[in-house]
C-alpha cells in the first residue's frame, strides 16, 4: 500500500491522466466523481497489494477504470463508513 507522502507524489505525477479519465466520466454523465475520489480508488483498490512496476502499466490501470468500477467501490465505502448521526452526513450532492 502506498504511504501518504508517496501517494501525494504519485498524485501529481498522474494528475493529467486522472483529469483525462474525469473528462471521460463527465461526458458519460457522471459529474459527481472528481479526480481526488478517483485517485483514492486507484490507491485503495487498484494498487492496494502492489503498484505496477512500469509507468505504462500504471497509466493502463487508471485508463481501464469504468464508472461502474468506481461506483461499486464507492458503494462499499459508503456501507462500511461509520456515521454516528445524520448530522455528520453530507446531503448536498443529492439535491
Topology:
Layout: H1 4-27, H2 35-46, H3 55-63, H4 67-80
Helix pairs in contact: 1-2
Question: If you had to describe this structure to a student in words, what would you say it looks like?
Answer:
The structure is a single chain. The protein is mostly helical. The protein has one domain. 62% of the residues lie in helices and 0% in strands. The chain contains four helices and no strands. The chain has helices spanning 4-27, 35-46, 55-63, 67-80. It is globular and about 45 Å long. It starts with a helix and ends in a 15-residue tail after the last helix. The model has no long low-confidence stretch (mean pLDDT 84). This is Post-transcriptional regulator. Pfam families: Post_transc_reg. It comes from Carnobacterium alterfunditum.
Average pLDDT rating: 84
Radius of gyration: 14 Å
Q: How many strands in all?
A: 0
Largest sheet: none
Uncertain ranges: none
Number of discrete domains:
1
First and last CA, distance:
35 Å
Strand content: under 5%
Tally of helical segments = 4
Share in helix:
55-70%
Query: What is the ordering of alpha helices and beta strands?
Result: HHHH
- Based on CA inertia axes, which overall geometry fits? globular
Supply the helix-strand structural class.
mainly alpha
